[in-house]
Amino acid sequence: MFILRHSHRLPARRFSTQPAAVKLSHEIHSPSPKSAVNARDGKAERAPLLVLHGLFGSKQNWRSVSKQLSNKINTQIVAIDLRNHGDSPHHMLHDYHAMAADVFHLADSLGIDAFSVMGHSMGGKTAMHMALENSDRIQGLICVDMSPISLNLTSLFSDYIVTMREVEAAGVKTHQQADAIMAKTIPELPIRQFISTNLKFKEGSDVLSFRVNLDALEASFTRHEGREGIAGFPLREKGLTYDGPALFVRGLKSGYVPDSSIPGIRRLFPQSEIVGIEGAGHWVHSEKPNEFMKVVQDWTERKL
């Protein structure tokens, strides 16, 4: 599957120090021929949409939504595994600067100059970073249940990593065995099921292990060599803005986009729209997929 090169470019605002990129695993979802009937008459082709998952997630978590959304908005969607996640390579450097560079490198390798980007949670902060640093390449930004603020999540996610290490140390051979260990410290079944999507058999082994890079992710919560940890947001005080269309979708049962964060969103993303989805927590796209896709479709058809 080839993606047409989108060549409408403006002078770039490039990264000042470009980290070495890793080659990201990805899936391309193209709209069916039938959906082309609904293409917008007389308007330019809509740029591809790149989708970035959250911490401990992968492109697998977005497969169903990506397939359906591709047809709904008649757009090619590229679902990506960020570094240290899914089928992408591991690297001890794990911050938003590096993750953003990886995604731009992937876009270059696919021949995509300009695109829209949608990110959830950690992927949302990566997407915001991309829009603020290289706004010329970003046609539109969709941020899913994340805001450009520092969040006190280190203790929570560090506890998850401790539990995941316990699972690996036990040498479990079934997901049921892994779940029994995780249930001792993680009472929420949906969170355990989400984390368990990372449990895989390595080639030649009958013992399950996590495919995420636990060492790198654990280290990423702390500031290192002047780089802010992933619980923060490194660009909020640099005076950058993204003046293109931006959509922030928040779950109204989640605390990741509190009302107090809205002025900061408006300052960094002056053209932003903020939409809350009733009954949804942090995993908006999986908890309320139909409502989520309708919000994205309506906004995309108006703005992109």
From TrEMBL:
Keywords: Hydrolase. InterPro entries: AB_hydrolase_1, AB_hydrolase_fold, Epox_hydrolase-like. Gene3D superfamilies: alpha/beta hydrolase. Belongs to the AB hydrolase superfamily. Signal peptide: none annotated. GO terms for cellular component: mitochondrion. GO terms for molecular function: carboxylic ester hydrolase activity. This is AB hydrolase-1 domain-containing protein. Residues 48-289 form the AB hydrolase-1 domain.
